[in-house]
Amino acid sequence: xxxxxxxxxxxxxxxxxxxxxxxxxxxxxxxxxxxxxxxxxxxxxxxxxxxxxxxxxxxxxxxxxxxxxxxxxxxxxxxxxxxxxxxxxxxxxxxxxxxxxxxxxxxxxxxxxxxxxxxxxxxxxxxxxxxxxxxxxxxxxxxxxxxxxxxxxxxxxxxxxxxxxxxxxxxxxxxxxxxxxxxxxxxxxxxxxxxxxxxxxxxxxxxxxxxxxxxxxxxxxxxxxxxxxxxxxxxxxxxxxxxxxxxxxxxxxxxxxxxxxxxxxxxxxxxxxxxxxxxxxxxxxxxxxxxxxxxxxxxxxxxxxxxxxxxxxxxxxxxxxxxxxxxxxxxxxxxxxxxxxxxxxxxxxxxxxxxxxxxxxxxxxxxxxxxxxxxxxxxxxxxxxxxxxxxxxxxxxxxxxxxxxxxxxxxxxxxxxxxxxxxxxxxxxxxxxxxxxxxxxxxxxxxxxxxxxxxxxxxxxxxxxxxxxxxxxxxxxxxxxxxxxxxxxxxxxxxxxxxxxxxxxxxxxxxxxxxxxxxxxxxxxxxxxxxxxxxxxxxxxxxxxxxxxxxxxxx
Length: 555
Hints:
By secondary structure, this protein is mainly beta. The chain has 3 domains: 8-105 and 513-555, no CATH class; 111-323, no CATH class; 473-511, no CATH class. Helix content is 7%, strand content 39%. The chain has 6 helices and 39 strands. β11 and β12 form a beta hairpin. The longest helix is centred in the last third of the chain and has 10 residues, at 519-528. The radius of gyration is 25 Å and the shape is globular.
């Protein structure tokens, strides 16, 4: 855990933090590979980048510049200048090969970007249909030839407008996927079963779209109970066991009218045929298949009733979460991050438990379930409710409790730890107030600060012991072994921590903590891995090394 940056805007994608710093003398974008335990950051001079990438921006001093997406060493940003006629561009560049691309945008409304090493797709919720509802419009770029494709892709049947809540887009195995948990644009209150809407097409070939049959995408029945849609989250996640993407959705619901609401996490495999992932591989016919006309993706299929045989779920795809009937739940405004990892059957929240306005007390709370040993699972009985296999869940899994961290301030031996380094990391007094954090299956980025043009303090929390930022102090001397201690153990230049703990008058040694290279050596080594630098890019030591607080919990 460490403070890694102070930023005006930021994204956290694929284990890499991309953030901007807008100082009076210079505006920079910095790229830090946290999953790679990077010692250095790639630093981009934004004004110099724009002079090369966007000729229309030259001489402009009043502008907005935000990072949008990062994947495969490719950064995508949005540039908007404040001239008499406002205009916006996508700015794309490679952090190792240093090529740049730009594309003028017709709309920036709910702009998103996804890419792999060969193709980039961006979309906006900007097309107005004949019925008055907005539709998603996609455009694409061939990164190999560095050309923007002319035809647009209109998603005429795809309802939903909130990324991460009602709609999700992603790229897996050279396919672009779109998913929505809404079927219609109007909530008419009709008593229908609910189905997902999903499609995919191979990158570079959007006309080869695949749309599954409606019965294979059953979601739920309205009769199962009311939903609090504010808590709904939706994403596509790769199943580590099968190598195929899954729908993962969290819903807070009052099942069959019960008094207490419960969050439940549902997973469902996408019903597409198994593919070898060669959907966008170059071929002799790839150019001839490119259309010069726009492409419309629509099913034109009316809603049809589905027989009861499809309306069932399996226990391993249903994970009951916390329940308001047995514990006090946090309000939505106090729950800053809500996530679920299907591969490890764990849900995780970041909550603010401060009682007084103007204060902050962030804690991580998580719940995980584990399969019972085979000799305790018993035999399969009759399923009372195939739509919610509660009996099978109780038979196959141990009920998991919800744990919170850091411990309560009055926990034995932990008061000093709470008031000291942990509190400074999670609740920096100089940056009170919070913004929504970001995370993935290995780590979190917690943001503290009021915003409004001010810096936000970004704190990295890693759950993978292989991610070890050089130079952090060992947490063993702060919160180790459940005993209160006075100080942390700094890392010595030889790589071994050895420091007298003045509070206890004894020595404690740690082995194997990564050492910090001299700044010049670390930068030289990073430069050698890429092509010769351009005028707008440099390699500098990671700024996290300048912040005093940081703890290594990997002992």
